[in-house]
Structure formats: structure tokens, C-alpha cells
């Protein structure tokens, strides 16, 4: 049995590693158990954006305050081109970086690699090839997405293009989402980020590549396909079996655009602080993350109802304003969004449903049965249950 001050963290993504770093720096014994043989296995050296518009505080300062160094490779991006659904380009500019471009995956210098190195330096015991199904003692669940609400697919490549950031809207490119092209230092990522229409993924990726070839001079060498998925929910408590649930396992994601890294790190830090001061993690995330999460649900409803004319209007307004200021307002909570929230929740009921049972007695790492009492069979056999119209597998008793 682990000693009282020892904490097990399931999953070595940004959420789990941020949590581990904060706990270890405070003198706690921490073990991170990671299913795969290396960090960042879900990612492919693709560029991602660490969002920097939703709060007044710069995201790198926010991370530094928690004791996490930003010594991964990052590049500030404060301007870019946004194409509206008719293909018209608009130049967008912020007064400060709108996001920090970083790389994801196991390679040197990525966010994942550098967080791992910081965790190891702080004395965290990281165990790879260790898929956790249940565990005893104090712990934090950080196992990443449990269902698919959004997918991104495209290419990573080498290029002679100038650095830049391009985004394009339109159903043919990315249904319900956006297509993006990011180039930095001779490397690039081009992808379609879709919130619906997953079955036509290949068609949307091909349309995205063709669009950026024509409109942004996309030029790819040594291209490799990549893809991934994300999970968006508004959990009731983000606690399971007395363990805080953090990052995308909790469903913490920006429902409008799928920016999850800031939520992952922030929730990891909040969980660590709650363990260190014996505080209430649920109250903390509901205050510090909840309002933005809920605003994202409303934003998604507005985006999906806006249609092409609404999108064109929004983009031309963005181009005429300080983009960081407008995006901060759009992403933040407001009284109007509180009024719209019940409608938005109803609209996205299936997507927002929490598959976990939320029971204090549940020790599943990946609880999806939704009915804890019925699932807890004493003979330890694998259980299949009907939860709503879907058959879910409970991992509680799997060998
Ligand atoms: C293609 C793509 C592009 C994206 N672009 C952006 C972007 O530009 N900006 C942004 O902010 N976000 C982006 N996101 C989302 C962002 O990457 C995630 O929100 C973030 O990685 C979530 O971190 P996490 O630690 O919660 O989960 P993860 O990064 O998924 O880490 C979870 C870890 O837990 C491990 N694990 C799972 N189950 C177990 C188990 N049973 N036992 C032990 N270990 C387990 C997994 O192997 C994994 O290593 C993107 C996502 C994708 C797929």
C-alpha cells in the first residue's frame, strides 16, 4: 500500500505531468503510471497552439507561477490570416501573442518531452508500459479523452514556406470546425479540425490541402499523415473514487475550438494544490475553469447557428479589432451566456454527457458504465451494461 503522502497519477499527458511536477516540488512522493512506452504517443510532432487570449494573464506566466518552466520550444503568434467561408482572407492581429506555437509528441523539445524531463528532475517516478485499470491509495486520474467529440486530421511536413498561421472556415473544409495551416522554421502542420462529418474525413483533408495550396501557397515535402481525437464534457464533479479527474479525461476542453492544453495544465495544477492543502478540488475547478467551459458550450451553439453570413460578420469584426481583446470577451462568461446555457446544454446533450458514474466508491480508471451499483459484481468478471442506448464496457473488473 502506498504511504499516505504518496500519490499515483494515471497518465503522463500535460495534465498528469503538470500535477506531478507541482506535487513533487512540494516534497510529495509521486508515481506517474503511463500506459504507453513514451510520452506524447497520441501526437506526431504536429504544431499545436497554447491558447493565450482567454485570460488577462499570459499563459506562460500562469504556468511559471505554478513552478512549471516553459522550456519547451515555443513561438509567439500574434497575427495570422483567417479565411471566411467564401474564401475571402482577413488579417487578424493581437496586441500580444494570441497563442504560443509548440510541438507535441515524444520528440525532443516538445511540450510532452519537456514536462517529462521536469517531472523526472523533481523526483517523480514515471513508469511506462503500465496500463492502469484500478489502483489503491491516493491518486489523480489523467488518462486523456474517453469519447470522441472532435477530430483533427492532416499532414506534418517539411517546407520552404515563410513562417505563418492561417485558418479557414467552411463546411467543405471542416464541418462544424476549422482548417488550419501552421508553419515555423521549415516545418508545417496542415489539418482539418471537424466537430461533425467524421465519416468524410479524407474528403475534408483533401479539400483543406487544396484550399491552402491555392490560397496560402502551401508547399509540402516529406509529408506524413497524422490525426487524433478529443473529448468535451462538462462534468458534475470531476471526482471519481475520491480521486480528482483532470485534463481531457474530465472533458476539460474548449468546446468552440478544441484548445485543451491550457485546461489540462490548469486542472493538473488545481488538483495538486487541492491535495497539498487538503482543499476542495471540485470547488476550485468549478470556480476557475467552470465558467469558461460553460461559455464554450454556448459559443459552440452560437457558432453552429450562425451560418456563413454570421461567420463572415464575426471574422470581419475580428479583423477590425484587437483580436486578443475580442477573443477574450467571446471566450469569457457573461450574463447572456448564463441565460443561453440551458438551451446550449440541451442542444449538445449527447456530446456533453458524462460517461463516468461519479461514485465515490468507483475505482475504475476509465469508468463508463454510468451505473456504479449494478456494475460492481463481486465475482470480478467483465461486465457489460446498457447505459442509455449504448452498451458500455466497465473496466472495473477487467484482468
Ligand atoms: C490532433 C490534435 C490537435 C490538437 N490541437 C490542440 C491545440 O492546438 N491546442 C490545444 O490547446 N489543444 C489541442 N489539442 C488538444 C490537446 O492536445 C489535449 O487537450 C491535451 O493533450 C490533453 O491532455 P491530457 O493530459 O488531459 O491528455 P493526454 O495528452 O491524452 O494524455 C493522457 C495520457 O494518459 C495515458 N493513459 C490513458 N489511459 C491510461 C491508463 N489506463 N493507464 C495509464 N495511462 C493511461 C495516455 O497514454 C496518455 O499518455 C489537440 C488534440 C489533437 C488530437
Quick description:
By secondary structure, the chain is α+β, with helices and mostly antiparallel strands. It has eleven helices and 18 strands.
Structural description of this entry:
The protein is of the alpha+beta class and 399 residues long. The protein contains eleven helices and 18 strands. Strand 12 and strand 13 form a beta hairpin. Helix 1 runs parallel beside helix 5, helix 7 runs antiparallel to helix 8 and helix 7 packs across helix 9. The longest helix has 31 residues. The radius of gyration is 21 Å and the shape is globular. The protein starts with 5 loop residues before the first strand and ends in a 5-residue tail after the last strand. The structure holds flavin-adenine dinucleotide. Flavin-adenine dinucleotide binds next to helix 1, strand 3, strand 14 and helix 5.
Spatial strand order of the main sheet? 6-5-11-12-13-10-14
Low-confidence stretches: 369-399
Which bin fits the share of residues in helices? Answer: 25-40%
Q: Mean pLDDT, as a whole number? A: 88
Strand share of the residues? 15-25%
The helix/strand series, from N terminus to C terminus, equals EHEEHEEEEHEEEEEEHEEEHHHHHHHEE
Ligand identities: flavin-adenine dinucleotide
CATH domain fold name of the largest domain = FAD/NAD(P)-binding domain
Question: Sheet with the most strands?
Answer: 7 strands, mixed
CATH level 1 class label of the largest domain? Alpha Beta
Distance between the termini: 20 Å
Please count the beta strands (DSSP E, at least 2 residues each): 18
Give the number of helices: 11
Amino acid at each position: 500500500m502506498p504511504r499516505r503522502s504518496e500519490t499515483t497519477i494515471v497518465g503522463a499527458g500535460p495534465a498528469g505531468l503538470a500535477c506531478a511536477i507541482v506535487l513533487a516540488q512540494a516534497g510529495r512522493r509521486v508515481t506517474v503510471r503511463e500506459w504507453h512506452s513514451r510520452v506524447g504517443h497520441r501526437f506526431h510532432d504536429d504544431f499545436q497552439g497554447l491558447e493565450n487570449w482567454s485570460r488577462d494573464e499570459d499563459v506562460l506566466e500562469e504556468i511559471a507561477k505554478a513552478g512549471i518552466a516553459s522550456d519547451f520550444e515555443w513561438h509567439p503568434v500574434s497575427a495570422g490570416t483567417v479565411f471566411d467561408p467564401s474564401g475571402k482572407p482577413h488579417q487578424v492581429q493581437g496586441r500580444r501573442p494570441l497563442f504560443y506555437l509548440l510541438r507535441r509528441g515524444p520528440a525532443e523539445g516538445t511540450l510532452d518531452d519537456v514536462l517529462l524531463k521536469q517531472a523526472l528532475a523533481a523526483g517523480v517516478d514515471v513508469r511506462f508500459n503500465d496500463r492502469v485499470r484500478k489502483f489503491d491509495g491516493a491518486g489523480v486520474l489523467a488518462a486523456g479523452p474517453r469519447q470522441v467529440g472532435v477530430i483533427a486530421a492532416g499532414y506534418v511536413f517539411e517546407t520552404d514556406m515563410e513562417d505563418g498561421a492561417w485558418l479557414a472556415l467552411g463546411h467543405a473544409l471542416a464541418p462544424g470546425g476549422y482548417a488550419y495551416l501552421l508553419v515555423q522554421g521549415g516545418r508545417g502542420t496542415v489539418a482539418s479540425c471537424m466537430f461533425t462529418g467524421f465519416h468524410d474525413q479524407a474528403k475534408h483533408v483533401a479539400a483543406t490541402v487544396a484550399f491552402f495550396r491555392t490560397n496560402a501557397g502551401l508547399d509540402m515535402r516529406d509529408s506524413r499523415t497524422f490525426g487524433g481525437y478529443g473529448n468535451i464534457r462538462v462534468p458534475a464533479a470531476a471526482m471519481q473514487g475520491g480521486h480528482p479527474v483532470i485534463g481531457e479525461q474530465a472533458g476539460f476542453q474548449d468546446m468552440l475550438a478544441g484548445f485543451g492544453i491550457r485546461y489540462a495544465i490548469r486542472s493538473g495544477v488545481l488538483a495538486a494544490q487541492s491535495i497539498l492543502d487538503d482543499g476542495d478540488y471540485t470547488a476550485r475547478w468549478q470556480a476557475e475553469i467552470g465558467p469558461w467551459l460553460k461559455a464554450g458550450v454556448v459559443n459552440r451553439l452560437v457558432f453552429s447557428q450562425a451560418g456563413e453570413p454570421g461567420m463572415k460578420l464575426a471574422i470581419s469584426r475580428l479583423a477590425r479589432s484587437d483580436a486578443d481583446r475580442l477573443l477574450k470577451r467571446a471566450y469569457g462568461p457573461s450574463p447572456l451566456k448564463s441565460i443561453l446555457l440551458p438551451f446550449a446544454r440541451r442542444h449538445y446533450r449527447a456530446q456533453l454527457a458524462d460517461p463516468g458514474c461519479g461514485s465515490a466508491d468507483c475505482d475504475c480508471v476509465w469508468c463508463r458504465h454510468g451505473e456504479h451499483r449494478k456494475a460492481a459484481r463481486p465475482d470480478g468478471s467483465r461486465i457489460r451494461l446498457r447505459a442509455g442506448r449504448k452498451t458500455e464496457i466497465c473496466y472495473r473488473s477487467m484482468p
